[in-house]
Amino acid sequence: MSRTAFRSTLDRAIRRSSRGIAPSACRYQSTSTSSSSSVPAVKDNELAKVIRDTIRATGPIPLSRYMQFCLSHPIHGYYQKSDVFGEKGDFITSPEISQIFGELVAIWFLTRWMEVDSPTRVRIVELGPGRGTLMDDILRTLFNFPGITSAIKSIHLVENSEYLRKVQNDKISRRIEDKEVELSWNTGINEIPEADDTYTLFVAHEFFDAMPINTFEKTDMGWREVQVDNDPMHGNGLSTQTSKSGLRLSISPSPTALSTVLPASSPRFAKLSTGSRIEVSQDSFKIMRRIGELLGKGKGGCGVVVDYGGDRSYGQSFRAFKGHKIVDVFDDPGNADLTANVDFAYLRESLAGTGTSALGPISQASFLLSLGLQPRLRKLIDSASTEERKEDIRKSAQRLIDPLGMGGQYQVMGISSGEMTEEIYPFISPKKESKVLKP
Ligand SMILES: C[S@@+](CC[C@H](N)C(=O)[O-])C[C@H]1O[C@@H](n2cnc3c(N)ncnc32)[C@H](O)[C@@H]1O
């Protein structure tokens, strides 16, 4: 589909007042950093005690296990707690900043669906929907088009936080109350049923960065795993270096089960020099592969993964956020968000042989500008009633495409069923792209 066709689809879309913005920090970087000493002392962090006892019983644990404890523990896990998004939470995400984000994802879905002759059965799958804002904006936009509205039969949300499921339900149920659309939740991607007669639209925004990672260091003796261990100096009153939770990183002296398998999972890792570190997300690989298998069959489908990271591996991007600041990853387990950059090349490798093609990644700025951010922004500004409101709308959209900020740091990878015989807009090669875009 051409750029002009996108624009006319966009022009027919959506008329709604804008949601406003919250001037908070996003997760790809901090607006400020906080050293361990400026974080208030953690009194009796119960999760830290659980983790220390586990290590005492079984020895150092993989980093992935530590992340699972911190993010998904059924009682103390970060996402089980009250709202961690927005100004009062720990970070803010693109869909929360401007409605235009979700609207343009919807427009891409609409044009892909039209391109494959508008299948009469459609479902939408989202991984990690947060407050449900992105799904709400996508549905609001798609419901302006009667063809696809009547085709949408179900929405599948993969979410493991009970608290967030309630927030999502409140928002999305209202949006579909007069529609015959089934809304359901799954804990993992493997619970999403195959549906050969249905075209699948898939989205994951800031989901893969929350997936557990394992870190490995290449030594003269081969790959060694970086693990989480108890700090022997903790609690002796002498050390000023120890983390507040009594946990620290250590390198396993001998190979572990993970260090023999994961560094061999991509040919790219073998080329790295001694001393290099890699962060590998086994769960991301498996989840993306399953998405490929679901989209590669039957009526097929398409999707987008949006996250910070790049088309390469990272070694030291693991970090923690609390109150819009970067804090030590061991300061306050379960009360800080843990995250790592996404290796998009690894996600692409996971799709091999699934019957799907990976598209891009391209920058968020390229994606949004190509799909018509500017004309949509003009319409929203024109319909705003006060100068202050107009300025809010302009600033929030600008934030999404700032090449030095979210526009450049966030990447968008597309996925589409079938072998790619021609480029799919806006995932076009950089040479052609530069003619179209001037962020
Ligand atoms: C950083 S938030 C992003 C939320 C939303 N997509 C946005 O951009 O505003 C990560 C989301 O993934 C969910 N999540 C994290 N780990 C998960 C897991 N292992 N299984 C299912 N959902 C998970 C969280 O509860 C949350 O909804």
Automatic annotation (TrEMBL):
Its EC number is 2.1.1.320. GO terms for molecular function: protein-arginine omega-N symmetric methyltransferase activity. The keyword rRNA-binding does not apply. It is found in: Mitochondrion. Keywords: Methyltransferase, Mitochondrion, Transferase. Gene3D superfamilies: 3.40.50.12710. InterPro entries: NDUFAF7 (IPR003788), NDUFAF7_sf (IPR038375), SAM-dependent_MTases_sf (IPR029063). Pfam families: Methyltransf_28 (PF02636). It comes from the Eukaryota. One of its GO terms (biological process) is mitochondrial respiratory chain complex I assembly. It catalyses: L-arginyl-[protein] + 2 S-adenosyl-L-methionine = N(omega),N(omega)'-dimethyl-L-arginyl-[protein] + 2 S-adenosyl-L-homocysteine + 2 H(+). GO terms for cellular component: mitochondrion. Belongs to the NDUFAF7 family. PANTHER family: PROTEIN ARGININE METHYLTRANSFERASE NDUFAF7, MITOCHONDRIAL (PTHR12049). Arginine methyltransferase involved in the assembly or stability of mitochondrial NADH:ubiquinone oxidoreductase complex (complex I). This is Protein arginine methyltransferase NDUFAF7. The lineage of its organism: Eukaryota, Fungi, Dikarya, Basidiomycota, Agaricomycotina.
